[in-house]
Design a protein that fits this description.
The complex is a heterodimer of chains A (48) and B (349). Chain A has 48 residues and is mainly alpha-helical. Chain A is built from two helices and one strand. Chain A has helices at 6-12, 17-36, and one strand spanning 39-40. The longest helix of chain A is centred in the middle third of the chain and has 20 residues, at 17-36. The radius of gyration of chain A is 12 Å and the shape is globular. Chain B has helices at 4-7, 56-59, 67-82, 92-101, 112-121, 136-140, 143-146, 150-154, 178-184, 209-215, 254-257, 260-269, 273-276, 281-284, 288-293, 298-314, and strands spanning 18-20, 26-28, 35-36, 189-194, 197-205, 222-223, 229-230, 238-239, 244-246, 326-330, 335-339. In chain B, the strands form four sheets. In chain B, strands 8-9-10-11 form a four-stranded mixed β-sheet, with no helix packed on it. In chain B, strand 6 (222-223) and strand 7 form a beta hairpin. Classes of the chains: A mainly alpha (48), B alpha+beta (349). Strand 1 of chain A pairs antiparallel with strand 3 of chain B.
């Protein structure tokens, strides 16, 4: 993934609320895709 | 979020499981713990997860459902803005104690909407958690998220706030095949040394376009476990304790030893032949690559080598152990050093 992982971007610079809102929504939409097909992710995280 | 792209290609190499693509959009990358459930509300009891993001009901083993994901999601939102998950402790026991008993605290500067959003996501009782009534809709209708248009995000109409610099450490724009690019993203740099001139080491960080050219020179290698390295389809290589490995030659018959998947991915990648091999003059002299392969099909062979190397690297069964950050691959005349999981950023950057 050429953009790197989210954790590194958080380390580089903490997100503003608006930036976090954007990624929160993207993650949430992905999560909803899983949930709507009866999957639970169970390991959402940004770092180990 | 593109889910389907990764569902069938479970990739456990990077423990961080939310990755950004070249445009800055978030993608899940790791579905190792994905669980198919009969119904959304059915309770599950298997004990899985990453401590800092585990919900109280998962920790206390009373059964959990999709609402457990919302707790983890709350931790991620918290971490994006504060830099740390809601509860930080030195031991797992202390962490679980806090998760079960303490309420999260929020910096004063945060908006009331955000504090409320997180308070309700980090709610210890899943039945009272945001999302317990109408799931996804509960969350997107919360005042903190309600200002964002779901369809705009879904259709990627909004430009991501993070702009990926194509010349950053994450550089891999010349490699459009997303899977291959994913592998490239774990390499920090390649060092090439002429072993006859040890002080003449060339370092190619991933932020340079030359890196992409150099990585194509990577020999086929297969790392069977975190500790053991071996050559696939070629001369067995010596594996030394310091993770340096030597090999005598690189298999020259790329086309015959490889399956069709490599051809396909080579086609789709469409790299320019002239960029696939650009040896420095120092290492050109006695390179084993030159002596075994035959120069007539240099460009295509180079691409095959590259594709294969990446495919084999991708075929880790298990992620290397965390202490292994770096592989130095030594040939007769060259030293390849692949840094996995090194910090991409220095704190000062």
């Amino acid at each position: 993934m050429p953009g790197g992982d989210l954790y590194n971007h958080i380390c580089k610079k903490k997100f503003t609320e608006d930036e976090a809102k954007f990624y929160a929504m993207e993650i949430l939409i992905g999560l909803e895709q899983l949930h709507s097909t009866n999957y639970i992710h169970r390991d959402l995280k940004v770092k180990t | 979020m593109n889910i389907t792209r990764y569902l069938n290609s479970y990739f456990s190499f990077q423990p961080e499981n939310i990755l950004l693509d070249i445009d800055g959009h978030a993608n899940f990358a790791d579905f190792g713990f994905l669980k198919k459930v009969e119904s959304k509300t059915m309770l599950n009891f298997s004990y899985r997860g990453t401590p800092a993001y585990m919900s109280p009901e998962l920790i206390s083993r009373v059964g959990y459902n999709y609402l457990s994901d919302y707790y983890s999601f709350g931790c991620i939102v918290y971490e994006m803005i504060s830099g740390n998950p809601p509860f930080v402790t030195s031991t797992k026991a202390e962490l679980f104690e806090k998760v079960l008993k303490e309420e999260p605290t929020f910096p004063q500067a945060w908006s009331p909407e955000l504090k409320d959003f997180l308070t309700r996501l980090l709610e210890k009782c899943p039945d009272n958690r945001l999302g317990a009534n109408n799931g996804f809709l509960d969350l997107v209708r919360h005042p903190w998220l309600a200002t964002v248009n779901v369809a705009d995000i879904r259709n990627k109409n909004i430009k991501p706030p993070i702009i990926i610099d194509p010349h950053s450490h994450y550089f891999s724009a010349k490699v459009p095949d997303s899977d291959v690019a994913q592998d490239l993203s774990v390499c920090r740099e390649i060092r090439l040394s002429d072993m006859n001139l040890l002080d003449n080491t060339e370092i190619f960080p991933t932020k340079t376009p030359e890196y992409v050219d150099k990585i194509k020179e990577l020999p086929i290698l297969k790392i069977e476990t975190g500790e053991k390295l071996s050559m696939d389809g070629g001369t067995p290589m010596r594996v030394e304790s310091n993770k340096k490995m030597s090999f005598l030659q690189v298999p020259s018959q790329m086309d015959s030893t490889l399956g069709s998947r490599n051809r396909v991915s080579t086609k789709s990648r469409g790299a320019s032949p002239e960029s696939s091999m650009s040896f420095s003059s120092a290492s050109d002299r006695a390179s084993p690559f030159n002596s075994t392969g035959g120069n007539s099909s240099r460009s295509s062979a180079g691409e095959m080598e590259y594709e294969t190397g990446m495919n084999e690297i991708r075929n880790f069964d298990k992620a290397p152990s965390k202490k292994m950050d770096c592989y130095k691959i030594v040939s007769n005349v060259k030293l390849y050093e692949i840094n996995f999981r090194s910090p991409f950023y220095k704190p000062s950057e």
